[in-house]
Design goal:
Number of strands: 9
CATH superfamily of the largest domain: Alpha-L RNA-binding motif
Strand content: 25-35%
Order of helices and strands: EEEHEHEEHEEE
Low-confidence stretches: 1-6
Radius of gyration: 17 Å
CATH architecture of the largest domain: 2-Layer Sandwich
Number of domains: 2
Mean pLDDT: 88
Shape: globular
Helix content: 10-25%
Distance between the termini: 16 Å
């Protein structure tokens, strides 16, 4: 374990595949992070649902782990979100203003419609397609990370999420990582050591 006092924290970026549980202990039903990351002593800084894909930041530094996961520290998270139907500008404005999810109102999100990302990989299993219902891709940026928040937000405005990929957390992104791949980066600016 590296000493975080001297700035030597380990930070690992993993592209978590669909269907993988965001924990190291076995759950008996799904593969876990242990199946992809043979690095002892690191833990996820925030979670990603089993049916979501993409960037998981792991570290051996508890202080850094909290700074990445806790919304008080405003690490913006960027998601690629495939939704059912084509959202109207009015619907996107609802996301930009904050969505009332019952027990909470989300902070305003930054959102825009984007073309299907070029770096996108084939998901296994694929999402369900319906010939009569078009889909759209959104780039959605939030500073929170409540349980299933993005899925709840898009459903609330009438555009259910079909596929959810976390592309970036703060300075770190998935760029160059295929599903199941990982790399170690510098803890300060997100660059490889």
């Amino acid at each position: 374990m590296r000493c975080s006092i001297q700035g030597m924290s380990r930070v690992i970026l993993l592209n978590k595949p669909f269907g993988v549980v965001c924990q190291f202990s076995e759950d008996g039903l799904h593969p876990t992070l242990k199946s992809f990351l043979p690095v002892p002593g690191v833990y996820p800084a925030g979670r990603l649902d089993t049916d979501s894909e993409g960037l998981v930041v792991l570290t051996d530094d508890g202080v850094l782990q909290e700074r990445v996961a806790d919304p008080r520290f405003t690490k913006e998270k960027t998601y690629w979100v495939q939704v059912e139907k084509i959202p109207s500008e009015t619907a996107l404005d609802e996301l930009r203003e904050g969505v009332d999810l019952g027990r909470m109102v989300t902070l305003p999100a930054r959102v825009r419609i984007i073309p299907e990302p070029e770096e996108l990989w084939v998901r296994s299993p694929p999402i369900r397609y319906r010939q009569t219902i078009p889909t759209a891709w959104l780039e959605l940026k939030i500073r929170e990370g409540k349980n299933r928040q993005i899925r709840r937000m898009t459903a609330k405005i009438g555009y259910p999420t079909l596929r959810l990929i976390r592309y970036a957390v703060g300075p770190w992104s998935l760029q160059g990582l295929a599903p199941g791949e990982w790399k170690e980066v510098d803890s300060v600016d997100g660059q490889e050591p």
